[in-house]
Write a structure and sequence with these properties.
This protein is of the alpha/beta class and 791 residues long. Helices cover 35% and strands 14% of the residues. The chain is built from 29 helices and 25 strands. The strands form 6 sheets. The chain has a 7-stranded mixed β-sheet with strand order 2-3-4-1-5-6-7, sandwiched between helices. Strands 8, 9, 10, 11, 13 and 14 form a 6-stranded mixed β-sheet that branches. Helix 5 links the parallel strand 8 and strand 9. It is globular, with a radius of gyration of 31 Å.
């Protein structure tokens, strides 16, 4: 007998599922007769007291929980929030109920659609907004029918052509004689090497009989495979390797290290694999087939290995769905030394606009790397495995953003002609310690991918001094920094925290979002100072001493903490604070993200600077959430949104703001996207006189001042009233509900969590789906992506 717990929910609609019989106070027995003749019996517990319900859950297992949090019929908001906190702890510890076995009912009023949703509903399986009786029955019936049945996956391994034929025969026997269901009806398919091709066919609905018939003589769905498709000699590379070996044998230095020349002469693959890839593409272009991971009949995943980083790559997961299936199969089948690996760029977050910083990052990643074989610039080698894949190591130890910084320091004035002083001496960007003891640098923990083991170039760049260790070659003579013309490259390096040759252990953060990011990245033990507004995550951040506000931070108190790095923001903090910190000789990292892509790049930069792993679960969740929002946005008609940030005077956001970009990514359109404001922010708040018309070009126009008539003219479909920077009240919400706008007519004037809109930290992984739920509540499920790694 299965048990259903109804919290503040009227049981009458559910009784239509079968025959009901009252067992006692608050207990009902429900007997449901299936079309197949089977009989299902349920024990329905009806409870309205949250305390009694929690005690009941703690003592007995429950198969399905239904919580009514609607304002008119369900639990009060405070009790519903408390119930969610007890059922599903924030720290993801073991709760009293299973999240995927819980159904919550919400109404479209502002309270339930925002506060209750933020409290925990977004983590549940299937929130229902104002469901009718039939919708509630359909949802419960689907959960009951799905109970006890997990997804069935078919995993297929490799083994070359012999393993492929063996697997085909085994699959045909299983499909015909053993299983009680067809293989094509499995829930998802996974494959590596030769098994990935079979998995792709099964995911597209091709039966084992059709596969056998196609491989033997060809048919409409599976073309016949020939000897030439399997074995196409890699003639070009074999010739180049042989010629390179001959040159190395007659060149200098080979006698001292003959194995090096022999190793470099080994081909990446005896067979090119191009014809095999064309066969896969031809097979997946047959009628009724799809060569795209998002369009297959059942979910498909293909495994491979990044030979440069030894990381596992799973095509079909978020970030790797844009690769054609035939290309993924080709990568999985690459087995050294038989088949050459493929070259593919790592996935990047795609945006409509590319920030100059990201353009620079892409150009930096597009460099050619010294490896035994050539590949397109910036590409990574993907293969199925083999001895060569296990034995290889990248020849360059300073890859990545940190390595790019270290190489820039070592290469001297060759970086940019503007990055030198008047004397032609290479300029070390502000914040670097050019005069520190190189022995101390060697004893410190180096940055990941830094200059550990780096050798000085045989021919240094012009102007770089040849004496001294590599770490101090760029140190300018005394007084040279007084007349420095910092070029664009030096300024970019300064913004990225140039000069950090060791991992900082004592960090002061003057930015609330950055402070939260450090704790979520597991770097909270480095934070020795914060501001009064750095309040997340509690209680951990509460133990860190405060140095004042974001605008009036005490520079003396910061210096007394002896920080090795101070994190500031161009908008959160004042220019005077930044100038005073630099004047005291402190290392300062300045940030100013205006888009979600900027925030993602900043999180990765902080992780790299402070030694957090690049595959930290928080970063992976963030990347997955951004990719999912971009996928949803591509299939969504944007809704017009008005998001004010101040009530008196009424102020909103320009298009060149982080909040506007969040709305755009989540399927919204800022109605004042192109509106410049008339007065500076200080004048809007009554703290300064308006600027004259001749100073219009100097104004910060990102926060325009508007009127209610202009709001009506723009006709927003959704109005979001965040609780920061201005705490909008219910009285403020009534002002907008009285306007003649679609948002008021549809009940879409919402008081929302301001942190979800304007805090750029790993919390975006949960905030982005939450914002999308505010803008598109008709979607059945908008939930945070699960991490790609096991925490």
């Amino acid at each position: 007998m299965r048990t259903l717990l109804l919290l503040a929910l009227d049981p009458k609609p559910l009784l239509e599922l079968g025959e009901a019989r009252r067992l006692g106070d608050g207990e009902i027995q429900l007997v449901r007769r299936m079309d197949s003749g089977d009989v299902q019996t349920f024990r329905v517990i009806v409870e309205r007291d949250p305390a009694r319900a929690l005690r009941w859950l703690a003592a007995r297992p429950v198969d399905l929980v239904l919580l009514d949090a609607r304002a008119e019929t369900g639990l009060p908001l405070a009790e519903a929030t408390s119930m969610l906190d007890r059922l599903y702890p924030v720290d993801d510890s073991h709760g009293l109920a299973s999240r995927d076995r819980t159904l919550i009912l919400l109404d479209r009023q502002a309270a339930s659609a925002t506060v209750a949703f933020r409290a925990g509903c977004h983590r549940l399986r299937e929130p229902l907004f104002d469901p009718t009786g039939s919708e509630l029955l359909d949802a419960v019936e689907a959960l009951i029918a799905d109970h006890g049945r997990g997804k069935i996956a078919l995993c297929l391994a490799g083994g070359g052509i012999e393993g492929l034929l063996y697997e085909v025969g085994a699959l045909r026997a299983l499909d015909r004689f053993v299983l009680d269901r067809r293989l094509c009806d499995f829930d998802l398919f996974l494959g590596i090497s030769a098994g990935s091709f079979l998995a792709a066919l099964l995911a597209n609905g091709v039966t084992p009989d059709e596969i056998v018939d196609g491989l033997r003589k060809g048919n409409d769905r599976v073309p016949r495979i020939g000897r030439g498709d399997l074995f196409d000699p890699n003639v070009g590379e074999l010739g180049r390797r042989a010629l390179g070996l001959a040159r190395a044998l007659v060149g200098s230095g080979t006698a001292r290290n003959p194995l090096s020349a022999l190793y470099r002469s080994l081909p990446s693959g005896i067979f090119a694999g191009d014809r095999l890839e064309k066969y896969f593409a031809r097979a997946l272009s047959s009628p009724g087939m799809s060569d795209h991971f998002e369009e297959t009949r059942k979910p498909l995943f293909v495994g491979a290995t990044d030979q440069d980083t030894s990381e596992a790559v799973v095509f079909g997961e978020p970030g790797w769905t844009d690769v054609p299936i035939h290309r993924a199969i080709r990568a999985s089948c690459a087995l050294a030394p038989f088949y050459a690996p493929i070259a593919h760029r790592r996935p990047l977050v795609r945006r409509r606009r590319v920030h100059p910083h990201h353009q620079h990052a892409r150009r930096r990643e597009a460099r050619r790397v010294a490896l035994p074989h050539r590949r397109p610039a910036g590409a990574h080698l993907l293969a199925g495995g083999g001895l060569r894949a296990r034995a290889r190591r990248p020849l360059r130890h300073d890859a990545g953003p940190e390595g790019a910084h270290q190489r820039a320091l070592r290469q001297g004035p060759q970086r940019h002609r503007g990055d030198v002083s008047e004397r032609g001496v290479p300029h070390l960007p502000a914040g670097g310690r050019g005069d520190e003891d190189p022995r101390r640098v060697a004893d410190e923990v180096p940055l990941p991918g830094g200059d550990r083991g780096a050798r000085v170039r045989e021919h240094p760049a012009p102007g770089a001094r040849r004496d001294g260790p590599a770490a101090t070659r760029l140190r300018p003579p005394r007084g040279a920094l007084r007349r420095v013309h910092a070029g664009p490259r030096a300024r970019r390096l300064a913004r990225r925290g140039a000069g950090l040759r060791v991992i900082p252990r004592r960090v002061v953060s003057l930015v609330p979002s950055v402070t939260e990011s450090l704790f979520l990245l597991g770097l909270g033990d480095r934070v020795v100072g914060r501001t009064d507004y750095c309040v997340e995550p509690m209680p951990a951040v509460g133990a860190v001493p405060s140095v004042g506000g974001t605008k009036d931070a005490d520079v003396d108190a910061i210096a007394a903490l002896s920080p090795e790095l101070v994190l500031v923001n161009q908008e959160e903090n004042t220019e005077a604070i930044h100038r005073d910190l630099v004047a005291r000789g402190l290392r300062v990292h300045l940030s100013f993200p205006k888009t979600v892509a900027d925030a993602v790049a900043l999180m990765r930069e902080l992780a790299a600077m402070l030694g957090a792993p690049a595959d930290h679960p928080a970063l992976l969740r963030l990347a997955d959430a951004v990719s999912e929002m971009e996928r949803l946005r591509a299939h969504t008609v944007p809704r017009k949104v008005f998001c004010p940030i101040w009530m008196d005077p009424l102020m909103t956001i320009h298009g060149d703001t982080f909040i506007s970009d969040v709305l755009d990514l989540c399927g919204g359109q800022n109605v004042f996207l192109d509106r410049p404001r008339r007065y500076p922010l200080a004048a809007d708040l009554g703290r300064a006189a308006p600027w004259s018309n001749d100073r219009v070009g100097q104004r910060d126009t990102r926060y325009p001042r508007v009127t209610l008539d202009e709001v009506v003219e723009r006709q927003p479909e959704v109005v979001l009233l965040p609780d920061e920077p201005h705490p909008f009240s219910e009285a403020d919400a009534e002002v907008f509900r009285a306007l003649d706008i679609p948002a008021a007519a549809q009940g879409r004037v919402l008081r929302v969590d301001g942190k979800a809109l304007c805090w750029y930290s790993p919390r975006l992984a949960e905030a982005l789906p939450q914002v999308r739920a505010w803008l598109h509540p008709e979607e059945r499920r908008v939930a945070p992506m699960e991490p790609r790694v096991k925490e």
